[in-house]
Design brief:
15% strand; 13 strands; alpha/beta; 12 helices
């Protein structure tokens, strides 16, 4: 069977208005779709994957904000996936403001198992930036994340987005990193998105120096690891469970327009629709001879600059640093295992 990695939009709604949200405007609306269709469509999705030979290995509820949906209904959707694909990694990517103790308790009571289940918190690496760009939500998100972690039932991790504007708060970010390490909570760094876009080359210089200085290369596994979508031939897609719409990814090539619909087409046709967008973006000839090309796969098509990956220099700096320390970068990121 062919592995498939899915980011699921349950409802096109969110309770926050983060200024550098990477998602489509339709995922920032307030309107509430009828949730009665979600269970039925979850069964349809499982049946389609089985009929067409696809194996769900990754099933994460994305945004808008997935925890707008009732906790027991969310758990039932996860149970449907686990029943047929018991090895699938399941989880929620949340802004952290709605996952109260009552919400989490109900979800745990309804889940058939918490095995392979995690909750990721989209949270900045410091209070000043979080409150400025994410609707003053830092204290509540940190409180909920820390509480769930200390309860010890569901593993949690933070996904802080880093961009040019974070350069002036590096000392504050260092304090946040120290707190997270003391608590034993995971960190998975990501680049800033939305209208701010992927940072320019000047950003990568201080960013790579910072992750090396703070020993955060492993925490940047999302950026320098084999699980990033375009390093797996873009086999991760963002789909809407309520109406079937497919978007290229969470950053979406055409922000307001879905590129396909899994309810109307086969998954093979959906992937063909996505690949048309990927193939339409030119690559640089230097990529063909670069030693890191097998890793970066010529970069995300959405963020190529003159055909080169926007983070080309960052990749070279990080892997060059590992090489200078006598570390095989391929072994470090699990390239051989893949």
């Amino acid at each position: 069977m062919k592995d498939i990695r899915l980011q699921i939009n349950l409802k096109s709604a969110c309770n926050l208005r983060c200024s550098y949200c990477a998602l489509s405007e339709r995922s920032k609306n307030d309107y509430k779709e009828d949730t009665s269709v979600l269970i039925g469509n979850a069964h349809k999705l499982v049946a389609k994957c089985l009929d067409e030979g696809y194996n769900i290995v990754y099933f994460v509820l994305f945004g808008g904000e997935p925890t707008i949906v009732e906790a027991d209904l969310v758990a039932k959707i996860f149970n449907i996936i686990h029943e047929t694909f018991p090895g699938a990694r399941r989880g929620i990517q949340t802004n952290g403001t709605l996952v109260t103790k009552d919400y989490i308790d109900l979800m745990i009571d309804t889940l058939d198992t918490t095995e392979h289940f995690t909750i990721g918190f989209s949270i900045d690496a410091c209070k000043s930036m979080q409150d400025k760009y994410r609707s003053n939500s830092y204290d509540l998100a940190m409180e909920n994340m820390t509480r769930i972690h200390r309860e010890g039932i569901i593993p949690v991790f933070a996904v802080p987005t880093i961009g040019p504007q974070h350069e002036h708060v590096i000392p504050e970010m260092n304090e946040w990193v120290a707190f997270m390490r003391k608590e034993g909570m995971g960190i998975y760094l990501s680049y800033i998105g939305g209208d701010y876009g992927i940072p320019d080359p000047n950003f990568y210089k201080w960013f790579t120096n910072w992750i090396i200085d703070q020993d955060l290369i492993h925490s940047a596994v999302k950026l320098f690891g084999m699980n990033w979508c375009y390093r797996n031939d873009c086999n991760k897609m963002l789909l809407d469970l309520s109406d079937g719409d497919i978007f290229q990814c969470e950053n979406t090539f055409v922000k307001e327009s879905p590129i396909s619909n899994w309810l109307d087409k086969s998954l093979e046709e959906v992937y063909a629709d996505r690949q048309c967008h990927v193939d339409a973006v030119p690559t640089h000839p230097d990529c063909d001879t670069c030693e890191y090309q097998p890793f970066c796969n010529k970069g995300c098509p959405l963020y190529r600059i003159n055909g080169l990956p926007s983070d080309c220099e960052a990749i070279k700096r990080v892997f060059g640093y590992l090489t200078s320390r006598g570390v095989d970068w391929r072994e470090y990121i699990g390239f051989y295992d893949r």
